[in-house]
Amino acid sequence: MKEFGLLKLLDRFSDLFTRAGADYGVLRRILHLKLVMDSRRVPTVIANSGKVKEGKNYFKSSLFIYSFMGLFTALLMLLPFPMFYKMNFSFGMIIFLLMSTMISDFSSVLLDVREKNILTPRPISPKTLSTAKAIHIIYYLFYITLALAGPSMVLGTISYGPVFLIVFLIEIILICTFVVFFTSILYTLILRFFDGEKLKDIINYFQIILSVVLLISYQLIGRIFDISKVVITTSPAWWHYIMPTAWFAAPFSLLLEHDWSVYNIYLSVAAFVVPLSSLILYIKAVMPHFEKNLQKLNSQSSRNTETKSVKAAINEKIAKLLCSTAHERLFFKFTQQLSGNERKLKLRLYPTLAFSVFMPFVFMLNSLGRGKTTAGFFDDISNGVYYLGLYFTAIMLGSSMQLLKNSENYRGAWIYRALPLESPVPIFKGAFKGFLFNFIIPIYLFTSLIFVIICGIRIIPDVLLIFFNMMALILLIYKLSTKELPFYKDFQYTQDGNTTANMLLCFLITGLLGGVHYLVTLVPFGVTVNLAISILIVVLLWKSSFKIAWKDVSC
User: Fold this and answer.
1) Can you tell me the distance from the alpha carbon of 271 to that of 178, in angstroms, rounded to the nearest whole number?
2) In this predicted model, what pLDDT tens digit does every residue of 261-304 receive, in sequence order?
3) pTM of the entire structure?
4) Which of 159, 404, 408, 526 is deepest in the core (most CB within 10 A)?
């Protein structure tokens, strides 16, 4: 098995662990296994990168992504602001990214229920187990924090000298302490009042948030220097004393800019007292309850039966309205239920859906950055053709249909062949409609509503045209794609040659449709005529896309 540098370093201090009461040989084996599992686990930030490759260290790969996010934070050091403002922004982003990363990926390190269940019955001392866990936490935190905060540390040291480096290193240690405490408190409170399923749901939501933040940061990184034109002024207020970012920013203003005001002194004291107090509180009070409540992770969710029955009744009525046969209704509801419950599917799907809402408004942000006043900006938006940005929503939503074939429970796909169905059409139609109704249509309606509010009701015909163009695009890609049963394939096969070709075709067709749409806006009744043609194309594609026999199915 592969050797790790951490283990070689610990070998030099093996006698210290033995004197402390830990069995170093067992401790080393446990840590080795933890590190191997870390390297194989796919972190949230690269969860959508495609097929999993055997033997690749995904933890190290994720550190490059974290470093990019840290570089984005480090650029704040170049802004001509006072240290208090820059460090507030910088530490705010570092704390948010570190907290999100810990909750999304660090949960596998902190919430080690399965490991505890396996190792506790064996002749392994509690001291050895707790020491291995503590070292693993420190190792994990060290690398992630170094990746996130390292660029800021380097750029700040170059700009402000060794005093900045010393203060920054001390505060990063305090921030890690504070974040571990806060994360543990969050887990403890959730486990105190809810079951393990609720905690898993919340962890999944944070994974989704982290993915969305990463996607958005790619778009915003080029705009960071526009902020330098803003003049920021502030005055001390009571609520600054409950802001962790203000605590950690104050020592830099105190030591580098020599602002020895009472305001900065109190905040600087809080920067040291609060994290150290939280560490003591964590060890004395939180940890015992936390470890005891971890067993709730083995419990299953007890969801409200009445709420489930009401939701099921609504879905039944919708299924009857949209589906023509009983088998089709069955797979419509099956798709709704499975896509709503699978955490891994939501982790892949929800960032794409969020990005499909965010992306059209990038055009508006670009317009705002051209020296226009706020009134001129909104006037330009309301009278322009920025609503054509909805074609980016169409691209993202169209690409999300590719995930309909993936599931973490893909091994159960044998049931399709066991069903007494002469044709697979009800499976494909029901799943297609279920996915469309659950995700595609609501997201498009939400984004369109925002545009209608901003641009006025004049764009409603254009919004309808984009919708039917999107439907034509989805149906065309679906018709040309390999016929793969819903939820039958593992997520590591998300990207393949067929998927890549479909994505390229999706971009090409969307660009063509968007270009035609722009041209018809210049012609009287052009949008109306185009809308009628698009509706006709959707009807024809719908009738031809589901002519599928079992021999055509790839399974």
Assistant:
1) 10
2) 888 888 889 888 988 888 888 777 776 666 666 666 555 555 55
3) 0.63
4) 404
CB count, 10 Å around CB of 187?
Answer: 22
294 and 322 in a single domain? The answer is no
The closest of 31, 291, 288 to 23, measured between CA atoms, is: 31
Q: Taking all residues of the chain, what is their mean pLDDT, rounded to a whole number?
A: 77
Domain shared by 546 and 511, yes or no: yes
pLDDT tens column, 21-46: 888 888 888 888 888 776 666 555 55
Does 354 lie in the same domain as 258? no
Find how far residue 409's CA is from the centre of its chain: 21
Which three-class secondary structure state does DSSP give residue 421? coil
d(CA 348, CA 302): 26
* Residue-wise pLDDT tens digits, 191-204: 677 666 666 677 66
Distance of CA 512 to the CA centre of its chain: 31
Q: Computed from CA positions of residues 217, 222, 224, 226, in that sequence, does the dihedral angle turn out positive or negative?
A: negative
For residues 248 and 13, give the distance between their C-alpha atoms in angstroms, rounded to a whole number.
Answer: 33
64 and 185 share one domain: yes
Task: Give the C-alpha separation, 6 to 352, whole Å.
Answer: 37
Domains: count for the chain: 2
- List the domain range (segments joined by +) for residue 528: 313-554
Q: Which amino acid is at 65?
A: I
d(CA 114, CA 417): 35
